[in-house]
Amino acid sequence: MPAAPRTTPPSRPSLTERRKAETQLEIARTAAALFAERGAAVTADEIARTSGVALRTFYRYFRTKEDAVAPLLASGVRQWIDDLATPPAGPDALPVREVLERAARRALTPADEPAAEALRWTRGLLRAMPGDPALRVVWHRVHHDSEEALRPVLARLTGANPLAARLAAAAANTAMRVAVEEWAAGDGAPDGPQGPAQLVVRSLRALTAGLPELDGTYGVEERGSEENPGRRGGEENPARRGDEESVAAGGRSR
Hints:
- By secondary structure, this protein is an all-alpha fold.
- The longest helix is centred in the middle third of the chain and has 26 residues, at 133-158.
- It is built from eleven helices and two strands.
- The chain has helices spanning 15-38, 44-51, 55-61, 70-85, 96-107, 113-128, 133-158, 162-185, 196-207, 222-227, 238-253; strands at 231-232, 235-236.
- Strand 1 (231-232) and strand 2 (235-236) form a beta hairpin.
- Helix content is 66%, strand content 2%.
- A two-stranded antiparallel sheet has the order 1-2.
């Protein structure tokens, strides 16, 4: 059985860093709720006052009022990526495609009322974006950062070459974004049959159908990948084999 990818446990943030992150997330929740309720009319002063911090403190954390929602949007993304980077429990190795779908479904399935409320705030933010383009910039920046963070994770899981890992990250990230945007455009419940968790699975299957690298099992054996980059999970990479056959055919024709 392929070995699970070796990862170095991240260092624990300092108490000061944790308190800063908690304050930023609390301000982000307040900002999201206000944007969802009032749209672009919300001011930085209002966000700061409602959050219980001074305006100077607000600007110490965020450059603009729209930037204040980024920690809330990014928290769900971090959960998804951390979930993917953690080897699943149990002896059975699963296809990376299935692991990806399960992690995406969990990330978009509210586990409790605060999580459901966060999704509803996200819906409000997306609906406010036409009147405040800077909010859309933040939304796309969060997803760009998500895609960048996904690339090394998927490269480890699949043993794929850089281009294939980038395509997989782009497809997975786009599936998450489109699922949330489509759900937000309607009135379905966060955990209903037309909720984001259901939509993301459909989106993932459509966007990753042409990526055979995701069919390998979770946990590519790193040593095997290093010794033979053309193999993933003990299986020869069809794209590499096709390239080699084309080269050989070209040599015979000369």
